[in-house]
Amino acid sequence: MVKAARFNQFGGPEVLEIVELPDPRPGPGQVRIAVRAAGVNPSDWKKREGLMDRGLPQTLGHEAAGVVDELGEGVANVAVGDRVFGFSAEGAAQAELAVLDHYAPIPPSLDFPGAAALPAAVETATRALDQLGVRSGSTLLINGASGSVGAAAVQLAVVRGTHVIGTASPANHEYLRSLGAEPVAYGAGLVGRVRALAPDGVDEALDVAGSGVLPELIELAGGTEHVVTVADFAGAQEYGVAFSRGDAGRAVHALAEIGELIEAGRFSLPVAQTFPLAEIAEAHRVSEHGHARGKLVLVVG
């Protein structure tokens, strides 16, 4: 049996439990890891509140890092004992053992929390940039650039040779500059502030914050076809903007590619705070109410 995070009813953080579940087993092409760290994402508390999947009970966690302890049929690219990070096939990464269906070696310079912070942010950012066709020489506006997905998107766009403008609170402007973006404050008057930096508007716009600014992004990017949101499903439907979601085809190739950028000093994603697995309720509270710069991570074992 293995300890894992689960909830049996929808509600606040107090419905979360650490329960004993049967050991998961890897299928063909999968690996099982002894989890050392697991990422916490906004989707976790949205699931807990019943805003996403309606089935009960539900386990939690889509990304983890740890040590391979069992190989599924046909797996030849890693060995038992290897350090890997990746995506949990069953959404059950916040546990002592987890099965990964997409995985990559942990870059040598990273610890387990740092590796667990990567998969969702890197995959989401890469998928959105790919959908927008972000390329060298273009100008990209990222709304919500200082969170984990936003910071990943800034750095990956800069690697592509893109001029990046990012919205954030003034306290995070220096951080955005350190990532290679030109910062602007969000809120009323956004269009004017962006046009001061890009008089002709921008080529593409990515909404990571879901803060109700899709009309402004559409205006700045010259049409709905140049805007993607990963956070505002209702707004995407209302304004005819593409909503990027993983079930339309995930950019899992990003997992294998990010290590080289990290080791070259061209990409980093800070861990804002770590919590023991037993304190998952507190991690949810911080995720739901906080504006942490970087990733929240559960440490297991």
Could you explain how this protein is built, in words?
- The mean pLDDT is 95.
- The protein contains 10 helices and 15 strands.
- It is of the alpha/beta class.
- The radius of gyration is 19 Å and the shape is globular.
Classify the helix fraction into a percent range: 25-40%
* Outline: globular
Instruction: Give start-end ranges of low-pLDDT stretches.
Output: none
* Rg calc: 19 Å
Q: Helix-strand pattern, N to C?
A: EEEHEEEEHHEHEHEHEHEHEHEHE
The largest sheet is: 6 strands, mixed
Span from first to last CA?
15 Å
Please tally the β strands and state the result. Answer: 15
Nearest-integer average pLDDT: 95
Task: Quickly describe the structure.
By secondary structure, the protein is an alpha/beta fold. Helices cover 30% and strands 27% of the residues.
Give the arrangement of secondary structure elements.
Blueprint: E1 2-7, E2 16-21, E3 31-40, H1 42-48, E4 58-59, E5 63-71, E6 83-88, E7 97-105, H2 112-116, H3 119-132, E8 139-143, H4 148-159, E9 163-167, H5 173-179, E10 182-184, H6 190-197, E11 204-207, H7 214-221, E12 227-229, H8 233-239, E13 242-243, H9 253-263, E14 271-276, H10 280-289, E15 295-299
Parallel strand pairs: 8-9, 8-11, 9-10, 11-12, 12-13, 14-15
Antiparallel strand pairs: 1-2, 1-4, 3-5, 3-7, 3-15, 5-6, 6-7
Question: Which key features would you list for this structure?
Answer:
single chain, 301 residues, alpha/beta, 6-stranded mixed sheet, 6-stranded parallel sheet, 10 helices, 15 strands, globular
